[in-house]
Amino acid sequence: MKNITFYLFAFFLLSLSGCIEEYHADISAEDSDLLVVEGTICAEQQNIFYLTRTQALNASEAPRSVTGAKVSVRGSDGSEYQAQTASGYYTCQIGQLNPDVTYYLHIETDGETYESEPQKPLRTEKIANIRGVQNTPTSDIDVLVTPADPFDPSQPNYYMWTYDETWQVYPDYMTNMYYDTEKLEPVYISNPFPRWGWMDAAGSTMTVGASTSYDNQHIANLKIYDIGRDNVRMFHRYSGLVHQRAISKAEYEYELARRQASTEMGGLFTPLPSTQPTNIHCLTSSKHVIGFVGCSMNTSDYRFFLNGSEYAILHPTGTDSRKWLDNPTAEDCCQMVSQGMYLCDWVIPEKAEDHMLHAAWATLQQLDVRYKYPGAYIEEPDFWSLQENVSY
To answer: Is the peptide bond before 271 cis (omega within 30 degrees of 0)?
Structure first.
C-alpha cells in the first residue's frame, strides 16, 4: 500500500482539495525548528515515519529532514521494532500486534527523546461498498464510501481514507500503415503502436469521517473525493483502490485541527503550530512537537471500477490535429518520414471528393500513449480483468 507524503512548509500545509501551496507566514522563534512527525503504527506491513523540522519565515528550501535519529516502535510487553533510515524516511516492518498491548513510537534525535502516547491497536471494519455518483449531467463524479457494519454500534466510529488510482488511456490516433521509403509507397500492416495503456497515481486527498451523525453509528455514502467529468481519468475505464483505517477520536480531532489551520492562513498564521493538538511529547525538555501517530491492527482495502460510458463525460473537442498533405510527391513523403512523422491515412483520388491524393501524418506523441502521457505503461495490471468490485 502506498503511503501519502505530506508536504511540510513552515508548519505543514495540506488543503482539503489536496493541492499543495507554499505559504509565507511569520513563525515565532519558539515555533521554528519544531520536530514534525507523521506516520502510523500498523500491523503486518512496512511502517514509514517522516521526521522533519518546521522552517522559519523566508526559508525558500524544502522542509529539513531529520537524519541520524534513532526510531523504533515499542510495546508495553517489551517488544521493539527498530526502524531503518532511507532517504530521510524511517521504515520498520511490523508483524502481528497484540490487541491487549499498547504501542508507541520512540524517537531519539539532537539530544532529545520523544514518544507518542501508548495506544492499543484499533481494528478496522471492511468496506461494504464504494460507488461513483454524478448528481447532474454537468457535475463531477463523487466517490462515496460505506464501511461495513461497525464492530460496536453503540460507540462513535472514526475513520481515515486514502486511495490509489489507475485509469486507461488511449492515443489520439491509430494507424495500420507506414510509408516505405524504398518502395516509395504506403504499406499496410497491423497497428505498430499500443492500442491503449494505463496510468497510476497516489490519491491527492486524505479524508476523515465520524459516525456521530449517522444512524446506528454506521457511516453510509460519505464522499471521500471526486473526479472531474472532463478529467482524462474518466474518459474510459477507471479503478480506485481505497484504504480505510479506523482512527481514535483524538486522531480525528487532530486531523480536523490541522485542516482548520491550513485554511485559516490568510495573513497571520493562526493558530500557531505550538497550539495544535498532538499525541507526541518530548520527555527530556518542554519542546513542543507537531504530529500524531496512530495505531491500527489492520487496514481494509476496496477496489472499485467506474466506466466513463456510464456518466456524462465531457470529452475534448474532436478536431483533427494531424498534418495533411495534398497531392504529396514521393519526395514529400520521404521528408515527412525523415522528420519523425508517421503515415496515418492515405486517401486515393478515387475516394476523395476533390479527386486528389491526400495523406495524413501524425507524431509519435499522437500515436503512442507512452509519449502522450508521461508515466503511462502498456502492461495490463493484474486486476484490470476484474468485472466486479473487490473488498480486501
So the answer is: yes
User: Is 193 in a helix, a strand, or coil?
Assistant: coil
Helix (H) or strand (E) holding 336: helix 330-338
Specify the 3-state DSSP secondary structure of 17. Answer: coil
What's the DSSP call for residue 316? P
Q: Cell numbers at residue 11, please?
A: 508548519
3-state secondary structure (DSSP) of residue 365 = helix
Amino acid in the structure at residue 92 = C
pLDDT digits (tens, 9 = 90+) for 303-348: 999 999 999 999 998 899 999 999 999 999 999 999 999 999 999 9
Please tell me what DSSP assigns to residue 375: T
Cβ neighbours of residue 296 closer than 8 Å, sequence gap 6 or more: 40, 41, 42, 43, 121, 122, 124, 245, 246, 247
Interior CA angle at 269 toward 266 and 272, to 5°? Answer: 150
State whether residue 223 is helix, strand or coil.
Answer: strand
pTM of the model: 0.86
Q: Are strands 289-296 and 35-42 parallel, antiparallel or unpaired?
A: parallel
* C-alpha torsion sign, points 107, 110, 113, 116: negative
Cα separation of 5 and 11, whole Å? 15
Burial 43-60 (b: 16+ CB within 10 A, else e): beeebbbbbbbbbeeeee
Picking from 114, 142, 121, 172, the residue whose alpha carbon sits closest to that of residue 317 is 172
Dist CA 258 CA 261 (whole Å): 5
| CA gyration radius, the chain | 27
